[in-house]
Amino acid sequence: MSDKYSTVESQASYGIGYQMGEQLASNPFDGLDVETVLTGLTDGFNRAQPQVDNNDLRAAFTEIHERMQAAKQEQFAGAVEEGTKFLAENAKREEVLTTETGLQYEILTVGEGEKPTPASTVRTHYHGTLINGDVFDSSYERGQPAEFPVAGVIKGWTEALQMMPVGSKWRLYVPHDLAYGEQGAGGAIGPFSTLVFDIELLDIVG
């Protein structure tokens, strides 16, 4: 370790810069120039007149974002195509229903209780898999139901829960845009993944 930064202030200052560097490195774009980043950081800290016009900045940010989106979609085109084909075939099954958003569901057990609202908190058991059958999460396997707000989960769940009376058990087939989208979730759910969930709505707890 370097003894260059011996004071608390210098160590904290270095730590801020290091963390910013790690964040940039975690999601860089082609052509990212660290020296120019440092210039912008210095100018901003000193409240100097920006060297790039705001309109040009917005246009540059938009273009870089679009480039990164296009590159990511190209990288994961296989996952998108696989999910699209899976859902197209699945929709042909008589027992599968499809909503306007593209969410597919299958009613395994008919419930007769109250339906949650977006403001509700619910208790559920669930089992989640990728379309190849790999399990990424399961409250059944943990032996412990999960509680969460209806509005605080992925879009596919939020939509489905509001249609499910308490006591229902449904199987959801969730397109990537109603699940974790381009980001994925952790190591188990990759970007643009179509997901399958069995959800049992046990109770509305709030």
From TrEMBL:
SUPFAM superfamilies documented for this protein: FKBP-like
Record-annotated PPIase FKBP-type domain positions: 119-205
GO MF annotation terms: peptidyl-prolyl cis-trans isomerase activity
Matches recorded under PROSITE patterns: FKBP_PPIASE (PS50059)
Domain of life of the native organism: Bacteria
Gene3D superfamilies on file: 3.10.50.40, Peptidyl-prolyl cis-trans isomerase, FKBP-type, N-terminal domain
UniProt keyword annotations, A-Z: Isomerase, Rotamase
Pfam families: FKBP_C, FKBP_N
E.C. number(s) listed in UniProt: 5.2.1.8
Reactions catalysed, as given in the entry: [protein]-peptidylproline (omega=180) = [protein]-peptidylproline (omega=0)
GO biological process, one term: protein folding
Family: Belongs to the FKBP-type PPIase family.
Protein name per UniProt: Peptidyl-prolyl cis-trans isomerase
Gene that encodes it: fklB
